[in-house]
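Methods: holo model generation. Sequences were used as deposited, without trimming of termini or removal of tags, and paired with ligand SMILES retrieved from the corresponding compound records. Each pair was processed once, and we did not select among multiple samples. The sequence and 2-oxoglutaric acid SMILES for this entry were:
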Amino acid sequence: MRTPPAGSRVAPLETIDFGRILEQDPAEQSKLLAVCIKDGFFYLDLQAPRIRQILADKAHVVQMMEEYFALPNDVKMKDNRGAHTHGFKPVGTFTGFKDGARDGYETLKVAYPEMMAHSPLLPAVVQEQEGLFDSFIGLCHLVNKTMLVTLSDVLKLQGTDRFEAHHREGKPTNTTLVLLHYPQQDVKEGMGHNKHTDIGTLTLLFTEQWGLQLQQPGADEWDFVAPREGHAIVNVGDSLRFLSGKKFNSCLHRVVPVASDEDRYSIAYFLRPENDIHFEDVDGNKVKAAQWHDAKYVMFGEPHEKQAQSAMLTGGMERRTVILA
Ligand SMILES: O=C(O)CCC(=O)C(=O)O
Ligand SMILES: [Fe+2]
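and the model returned the structure below.
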């Protein structure tokens, strides 16, 4: 197991018990709202009997990932569909965490609408284990949607103001499951995954290894997020921050390579809004959710200098020093 470098800071994150959210426990519901406002990043305990199948499914998905990512690149490239929500992406497509470096991870993406439709376009490895992916994606979706409904309830939102009114089933959406593999890399190369806020609504992240870091709103330091068995890590994305009228925080995070003799695997389920809804972005412009998604993916691939000129990558969450000329 990788460990963070000696003396590293570890983020003191709160824990929400999903079993108690399912039971509609008022204290846990209020705590969920408070943590979305304060940090926008928390541990989610998934060990309650009614949900822990998600942990068993996750372990099987990790096994499948180890086999899939061990395939030669040209075989995996057959799953590349030139899309950001579907199929394979090779290492180096976006920026790494160090200036000038490219990213150090490859991904396989399984789009929620294609999974629901059992589309023949799904990657062959997913079609071979359709039962597993159906179950896992279904449970990830249930967890994120349940938290969304709970947040609307606690805020006493009504009608079209409710968050789930922007996430109706059957509407076109960029919601997707992303399987990430970070091959062992020379720490000095500075590859990893560049700092960013997530594009969508809520991210459910499973990771068994160190490497993920976050920056608390307004802070300069980066804290490691300790992997914790039986738990996922949840973070608020730009879209939910915008839909909340910027009341919720969306922490800046990144993945740094940590000296290790093993590869790193992580799984992210990105719940995103309907493509056609509108919100006000970081600069106060009215944009469509799909437009924000597509533009931000273009930004992920731009050189660091260009990324630094805009608040898009960091969702407006980075402490910015104003230099007065
Ligand atoms: O690999 C990880 O732990 C985090 C990945 C991530 O932040 C992302 O894909 O948005
Ligand atoms: Fe992320």
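The longest helix spans residues 130-154.
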